[in-house]
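Q: Could you write out the predicted structure for this multi-component system? I'm mainly interested in how the pieces pack against one another.
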Amino acid sequence: MKYPHSESLKKNRDFQLIYKEGKSCANRYLVLYVRKNGLAKNRLGISVSKKVGNSVVRHRITRLIRESYRLQEDMFNSGLDMVVIARVNAKGRSFEEIRSALLHLGKLQGVIKKE
RNA sequence: UAAGUAAGGUAAAUGUUCGCGGCUGACAGUGCCGAAAGGCGUCAGGUGAGGAAAGUCCGGGCUCCAUAGGGCAGGAUGCCGGAUAACGUCCGGUGGAGGCGACUCCAAGGAAAGUGCAGCAGAAAUAUACCGCCAGGCAGCUGGUAAGGGUGGAAGGGUAGUGUAAGAGACUACCGCCCGUCUGGUAACAGGCGGGGCAUAUGUAAACCCCAUCCGGAGCAAGACCGAAACGAAACGCGCGUCCUGGGUGACAGGAUGCUUUAGGCCGGCCCGGCUGUUUCAGGUGGGUCGCUUGACUCUGCCGGUGACGGCAGAGCUAGAUAGAUGAACAUUCAUGACAUAACCCGGCUUAUCGCCUUGCUUACUCC
């Protein structure tokens, strides 16, 4: 899975490293972990547990998060590893709600470029 | 027309912009990443989840392992015949149950091989006399009796009669049961005839069990190939020290052991610096490629069959990801879009599901 200027996180140990060393914050729908990776690019991982819903629900949320990041990619700083975790409340949310939730967490983490 | 019954179809549509996975073509390049295996760009075109993709409950293909033959254990199935690669599936029958009917449902072998279990009620549950009836006796009671009452899911085949002290298959008729035989049917079974008074006989086998048939195990994270690393083997190799043997106390040769430097290798654009025996074989971790979609395939037509299905001919190619591709925005219409996302591939079963549509048949009513 590709983004114009980013890559996706694949290995489980990458996720574990970010959970262990990264900073986290959360709102109603999402949790965001951030860790500097020392690379020029960002790497994004998305995690939706089975608690959230069945396969269709989880795929839907994954796609909304991915689309939100893709369209807002320019606003994020570079050189970050990020993991987005969907919470149970994210089930059934619209694209606009997920998008604003992601941007909100980005501002809390200080990884959104200031205009 | 209404109610019902059976079978089947569909699973919102269209457009614009942005985005993703395969595929094909063009362009870029003797370029980049990687030790290698191998992979990578841009543009265009076309293509890209389901009827259940689900549950993972059966069956098969495929792969590896095991396997002379046979048996035990364990598991599954269980009326008959057929279909099929196979099945616990499907089709057609038989028997039973329900429904006016169309039609639906059935785990439908054996309880005259053995063991177990059967609450409460009831006198008694596979043996026996509570009430009653009859006989005897003054009476307590004794004997006969399963017709009647009562209990129970079930009480010693049922109904009617003969018979009797009262009764009883004790006897008779019909029904049932068992045995034999004949006819029809491939068979399950159906029908007829004759015999047996009926002994074996309450139910339960989704209790053990018996009988018949079938089953080797694990699964694509199977497995095959390429291959950093680790573990291992062999060959080769600079200098020095110590010890042993031969030699003359030397030079030299061989062996054991230890250390160090250089060459070489790695990190690096180069220097400094740091690390390190080298090569080959073997090995198979991280990684990569294949397996991976042309198949018991789909569509159309004809033929055979009651049907499941089979045969022939023609046409077609319809996801192949590997942390896992179908999404977002806007507009319009119907409407307020249910259940639910392939993961090696097929055949089934089961379960979930908003609606809409089609066809056959049944019953009732009306009209002709």
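A: Regarding packing and overall arrangement: Chain A has three helices and five strands.
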